[in-house]
Amino acid sequence: MVKSADERLQLDDGSAIQQIATDQIKPNPYQPRKTFDDDKLDDLSRSIQQHGILQPIVLRTTITGYHIVVGERRFRAAKRAELTQVPAIVKSLSDEDMMELAIIENLQREDLNVIEEAESYRKLMDDLQLTQQQVAQRLSKSRPYIANMLRLLHLPSTVMRMIQQGELSGAHGRTLLALKSTAEITKLAKRAHREAWSVRYLEQYISDNKSPRENHKQQDTNTKPKFIKQQERQLKEQYGTNVAITTKKNKGQITFEFTSEAEFKRLVQQLNDKYKN
């Protein structure tokens, strides 16, 4: 089970609570949350004005001052309350620690939107050169869960914004990825939002409006042996993308689908890692 941010920071180094000037503190560059609810910040600010900051924020020393490791909401609310100092514990942490702790803190509060969550996983993978499996292990998630979240980053930017703003769900987004055209995805996403489609209705609409070629491919899939379908599912879960296995006489082909150069490089890296192991 993943430890809380506070548990991860309980290092026996005798750290004491200090009063640190707010103008010396900067946000965590690895903070996954891009948006903060103004109403909730105002509520927290009023509470801080009345009761003070009950739990110190955690900082890391930098050349120009301090970076927030845990407690950015408290810090932002404190500035709204016009505090010139905040109670803080200063820790010696690596960039890797900062990144993981920022993500863990936000995931535990469950207030990241799914796009921010997916971007957090991608940043961990890119900056720390981690595989999906390694990210899953570090954050106590399943690898298929990480893979499915990352797939949302293949959506057009317009649709990702719709999900961030709560106009569509992450499940809507994953369903729309069945379409190949960016224009199709965007058009149908706007219609699904405008007409308040459920995920199930969207799935049915896409299924009913497949091209003859796609329907033929679906029929081919339905006639595949059970063990082939099972292998396709396992590979899809393992590599986080659609996988097709075709066989003819004594020959066969395994096809991995990718929709961007970044995804192609990720697949190659995973395949190379698997070969090395």
TrEMBL record:
It is found in: Cytoplasm, Nucleoid. CDD domains: SPO0J_N (cd16393). The keyword Cytoplasm does not apply. GO terms for cellular component: chromosome; nucleoid. GO terms for molecular function: DNA binding. It comes from Staphylococcus lloydii. This is ParB/RepB/Spo0J family partition protein. Its main location: cytoplasm. The lineage of its organism: Bacteria, Bacillati, Bacillota, Bacilli, Bacillales. GO terms for biological process: chromosome segregation; positive regulation of sporulation resulting in formation of a cellular spore. Belongs to the ParB family. It comes from the Bacteria. Residues 18-107 form the ParB-like N-terminal domain. It holds the Pfam family HTH_ParB. Keywords: Chromosome partition, DNA-binding.
